Predict the 3D structure of the following.
Amino acid sequence: MLLSAEHEAFRRTVREFAEAEIAPYVAQWDREHHFPVDLVRKMGDLGLFGLIAPEEYGGAGGDFTSLCVAIEELGRVDQAIGITLEAGVGLGINPILEFGTAEQKERWLPDLVAGRALAGFGLTEPGAGSDAGATRTKAVLDGDQWVIDGAKQFITNAGTEITSLVTVTARTGTHESGAAEISAITIPAGTPGFIVEPAYDKLGWNISDTHPLSFEGVRVPVDHLLGDRGRGYAQFLAILDDGRIAISALAVGCIQACLDLCVQYAGERTTFGAPIGRKQGVAFQIADLAVMAQAGRALTYEAAAMKDAGASAGQLKQAASIAKLYTSEAAVTATRIATQVFGGYGFMEEYPVARFYRDAKILEIGEGTSEVQRMLIARGLGLPVE
Ligand SMILES: Cc1cc2nc3c(=O)[nH]c(=O)nc-3n(C[C@H](O)[C@H](O)[C@H](O)COP(=O)(O)OP(=O)(O)OC[C@H]3O[C@@H](n4cnc5c(N)ncnc54)[C@H](O)[C@@H]3O)c2cc1C
C-alpha cells in the first residue's frame, strides 16, 4: 500500500470536508471570482494549515505526506482551493518555519497556522520568472531599516483581506564574484508604500487570489530579514522543491476528478442505444485516466515519503521535478480527455470538467514550468544542459 491506514483515514476526513464545504458552492465562487475567507477559516479549524507546523505554534507536527493528501483531496473538488492551501503552507508558512528566527515564528506563525491569516511569497517579477535570480527589486539598509523598491508579479494569497505579510526576494548588494546578493525580507500587509495592485483576470484558478505588487520606498525594520543575508534565492529554491511535490498532489487531485466524473458520465450518457462507456473509443480513454492517476500518485507520494525520510537535497530535487513534470502534463491531458468524454456538455460551465479544463494549464507553469523541470532533471542526470 502506498499510504498508511492513518493517511487513508485522514484522506476520508478531508474528502468529506471538501464534499460538504466546497462542492456545493464552488461553481458560484468560480463564476464570481470570489475568494472564500470563511472557508479558509474552516480549513484552519480542521487543522489543514498546521499539518506540518510544530505544536508550539498550534500545528499538528505531522508529516509532509499528510499535507499532500489534503491538497490532493481539496484539488479533487476544486483546484483553486487546493492551491490556496498549497501556497498558504508552501509559500506562506514554510519559509518562516524553515528560516525564521524564534521571534519571527512567534509573531507570524500562530495566525497563519490557524487559518486566521495568509502569507504570500514574492519571487517572480515582470522581468524575472524562470530566471528568478534576475530579480531587480532592491532593498537598501538605511540605519535600522530596509528600504525596498521594486515590483513582483503573479503573487498568490498576496491581497486577501486576511493576508498578514508577503516575503519577497530583493537585491541587497553584490557578492565578491560580482553576482547579485539576494535576500528574503518579510513585509507586513499595510506597510506604507506596499501596494497591492488589482487582481489579475485569469484563465482559471478564479477563486485563488493573485496580484501584482509594487514597493515604493517601503520601510521595514532590519530584523525583517528572513534567513541569512545573501541566501534568499537559495532558500527559496529549496522551498520550491517541496512546493513541486505539493503541486504534484494538486495535479493528482485533478486527474482523479476527471476519472471519477468520466466513469460516472460514461455509464449514464447513451448514444446509439447504449451507454458511451460501451464504446472502446470512450472506455479506453478513461482507462488511460486511471493509469495517469495511479502513476501520478506513485511519483508524488514517493517524493513525499523521501521528504519525510530526510532524503538528500539532490535526491529530493530530482524526485520533485520528475513528479511535478509528469503529473502536471498528465493533468492537462486528463482534462482534455474528460472534456471530450462529456462532448458538448464538457464545454459548458454547468459541468465541473469545464472548470478543471481551465484550471489545469497553470499546473505546467507555476512553481517552475515544464521546461524548467526538464532542465533540472537533465542537470540531475549530469547532462551539461544550460
Ligand atoms: C496563477 C499564478 C500564480 C503564481 N503564484 C506565484 C507566487 O505566489 N509567487 C511567485 O513568486 N510566483 C508565482 N507565479 C509565477 C510563476 O512561478 C511564473 O509565472 C513561472 O515560474 C514562469 O515564469 P514567467 O511567467 O516569467 O515565464 P518565463 O520565465 O518568461 O518563461 C516563458 C517561457 O519560456 C520558457 N523558458 C524560460 N527559460 C527557459 C529555459 N532556460 N529553457 C527552456 N525554456 C525556458 C518557459 O518554460 C516558458 O515556456 C504564479 C504564476 C501564476 C500564473
Q: What stands out?
A: The chain has a mean pLDDT of 97. The first helix runs from residue 5 to 21.
